[in-house]
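Course assignment 3, question 2. Fill in each field.
Student: A.L.
Task: Predict the tertiary structure for the chain below.
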Amino acid sequence: MGFGFATQFDTRADADSLEATPLIIFLGQPARVEILVDNRLVTSGSYEAGNNSVDTSNLPDGSYPLVLRIREASGAVREERRFFVKNAQIARRDSWSISLTRGFLQTRSTTSRSACRKASTTRSVGRVA
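Answer field:
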C-alpha cells in the first residue's frame, strides 16, 4: 500500500522554460545563433541586437557542455561555451518543489495486519534559491 504527492512540472504550459538552464546572450547586432553539442549542430535561430534568451526547447534532456556559435551580420563569428541542464524533475530557480511519499510493505505469505511493516517515509519541501 502506498501514497504519493509531488509537484509536477511537465504538464505546465511553460514547461520548457521551467526545466532548462536559460541561455542568455548579448548581441551587438542581429545574428544567427547555432547550438552545438559534441560538435554537432542541434538547432539554430536568428536574433535581434540586445539581450536575448536562446530557444532551448529542441535540446535533449540531460546535463552537458554546449557551444553557442554566433554569426553576426557583419560576418564576424564567435563562440561561447556553456554548461546546460534540462530536466523536468528539477525545480527552476525561485520555484517550489513539494514531495510526500508514504508506504507500507506487506509480505505475501500472510495477509494479517501485523505482517505490514513501514517501508519508507519521505517528506521534502523546498525552494530552489
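Instructor remarks: The two ends are 35 Å apart (CA to CA). The chain is about 5% helix and 55% strand.
Grade: pending
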